[in-house]
Amino acid sequence: MNTMVMPLGIDFFEKLRKEGYYYIDKTGLISELLGKTFEVSLITRPRRFGKTLAMDMLASFFDISRDSREVFAGLEITKEKELCRQWQNQWPVIFLTLKEVDDLRFESAKVKLGICMSDLYKWHTYLLDSTKINDDDKIAFRRIESRKAEDEEVQNALYNLMRMMNAHFGKQVILLMDEYDVPLAKANENGFYGEMLNIIKGLMNKTLKTNPFLKFAVITGCLRIAKESIFTGTNNFVSDTISGERFNEYFGFTEKEVAELLKKAGFEDHAEEVKRWYDGYHFGTVDIYCPWDVLNHVNALQDAPWTPPRNYWEDTSHNGILHTFIELANNGQRADLDVNEKFETLLAGGYIEEAIEENLTYDTLHSSESNLWSLLYLTGYLTQAEPPEGVRPENGKLFLRIPNEEVKIIFRKTVAAWFNENITTVDRSELFEALWQGDDKKATEIISDILFDTISYHDYKEDFYHAFVVGIFTGAGYIVKSNREQGYGRTDISVRDRRHRRVIIIEAKHTDSEKRLEAACREAVDQIGERRYAEEFKKGYRSVICYGIAFFNKQCLVKKFDEVKK
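^ that's the sequence the OP posted. Answer follows.
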């Protein structure tokens, strides 16, 4: 087994190459990029699929101020001698990332944009010594660098820097802009989208529209913001999304690349679990693994070969998207959203058919169900599904599914969290009254209604129903204990009302058919009696009411068994 250094969180190409980190050769991106004439190329991919590293690799290759021959030695791109002669370290480059431009308030976010531009200018202080730059431009340069510039100067900062670099080098400038849409996403979340949009539009328009100093621009992000919203007037604009056919093998790992990595690391026997957990993304016609997950898991296996797969993407992604979707669909404010059955189909491993809109704006993401499904697709929560043989989606629609086990767990946790939050806002007084009064028929009716309105997981195991019942009592002022040792066994749930000195004990069962509901309910009641779950409550409580609850899919039956009455 060979121990390899995984490049976890390493987005600097030259550091990765010089310090011996494992690298899967993605330099073919350079030749494919240059194989098409464009002024602005926008590449959108979900988070953690290698966009920033790819952009840093491009900067290292093109930048005239570097000599990157050593770090590219032996890589695929070096086979193209003429291309390297014309392009490698031959062009002035601006590499800018906007992923740090986020805050809860607009003024603070605007300050961060100014800091971002200041840091960029610091990389190009050689211009202050250039005899080809006039004194007025040098004064303006220092204002940006020292963070003393006005808003308009910050918006013009890229254009003016390109103009100065063009004067100094005598060549047009390549612009590489990473995570361009992060400021807009954060602004939309925090209520100042319009103000931030004006800033970003101002920054983009002059930089990208009929700019004589621009050789070409490559821009990456998560979403393709509608052209009329932010890229107005941009000529020769090319967009490559996860539905397209270009660049797909360069963002993420292919099956062949993962197999080679596992072989080199000595973990070929883990191929199936890696595929089940981290594969499943379908970009264009290419099947892709999430690189962040694969590298993290291989790294964990190197430390402890028995390490099971875990969820790495959840820690880095914005799972509020799912929460917002479910909340909108279930809080009664959006009658046009009826997505529970679709979520259940997805969680069962099935697919849904939806129209996908790739030209979105952040302020309209929640304006329609179609936009919400599009958002889940474009951000990696869903991917294209292979339809059954002979079945074709309607025109303009895609078959969508959850890509892998990792994302399925995120769905499940988000659904469970939503239910736990949402159920506390529902008036459950009628249900509690029925249970304390021993009215199992009324309790059956009310719990069935709640269950019908809940997104279930479709594997229908007891742990789902257990969590469901616990959630009903959460936040209601009772002492709820789950799976604690009592009597001669382990009861599912106990609910104590200390004020009135009364207790409810619940044993939940699930069955595989509607016909077995009655029998399963009786088994639950018998288990409470036989294992004497109520023993510890006989002292101090006036009444202990025991219920068996049986579930089949979205049907339930509640049966009462009176253990103690005083």
